[in-house]
């Protein structure tokens, strides 16, 4: 039922985005070149054609998750602080290398991630006992020994 509602919402949103393309073009020039100018309308249309569906899907997903689940600013602050504690002075440079323009963009991604975790965990009831049993089953014991020899050929 949930998947059907999301699919219907997503489909309706895509049709709406497609219908929003008006016949009147915006001739404001956003880039000038010797070969010709790029108008705002040309730029928008190209972005919509290339990335419109994925951006729209992300926006709808965020709206649906925000409507159904709650993630507090305290939870986000805690996650940001954990990352800052791990990275120390490297925090800002790591954000930039990962493609975040600033900490706010990182916080936005964290919120989406936490909302997705809430959605996945919604129907899961796992007791501490079950979790411990699963951990014990997955735990492996490794026994390693070093054999020292004086020549490389002998080791091979």
UniProtKB/TrEMBL annotation:
Sections of the chain in a coiled coil: 121-148
> Which reaction is catalysed here?
[protein]-peptidylproline (omega=180) = [protein]-peptidylproline (omega=0)
Record's SUPFAM superfamilies? Triger factor/SurA peptide-binding domain-like
Could you tell me the keywords of this UniProt record?
Answer: Coiled coil, Isomerase, Rotamase, Signal
Enzyme Commission number: 5.2.1.8
Signal peptide range: 1-19
Q: What is this protein called?
A: peptidylprolyl isomerase
Q: Which organism is it from?
A: Lentibacillus juripiscarius
Classification of source organism: Bacteria, Bacillati, Bacillota, Bacilli, Bacillales
């Amino acid at each position: 039922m949930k998947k059907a509602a999301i699919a219907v919402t997503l489909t309706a949103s895509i049709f709406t985005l497609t219908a929003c393309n008006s016949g009147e073009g915006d001739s404001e020039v956003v880039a000038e070149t010797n070969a010709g100018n790029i108008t705002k309308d040309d730029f928008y249309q190209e972005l919509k054609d290339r990335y419109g569906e994925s951006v729209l899907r992300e926006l709808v997903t965020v709206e649906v998750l925000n409507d159904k689940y709650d993630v507090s600013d305290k939870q986000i602050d805690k996650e940001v602080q954990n990352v800052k504690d791990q990275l120390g002075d490297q925090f800002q440079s790591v954000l930039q290398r990962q493609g975040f323009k600033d900490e706010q963009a990182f916080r936005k991604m964290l919120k989406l991630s936490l909302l997705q975790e809430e959605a996945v965990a919604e129907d899961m009831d796992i007791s501490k006992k079950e979790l411990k049993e699963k951990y014990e089953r997955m735990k492996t014991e490794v026994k390693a020994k070093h054999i020292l020899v004086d020549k490389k050929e002998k080791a091979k």
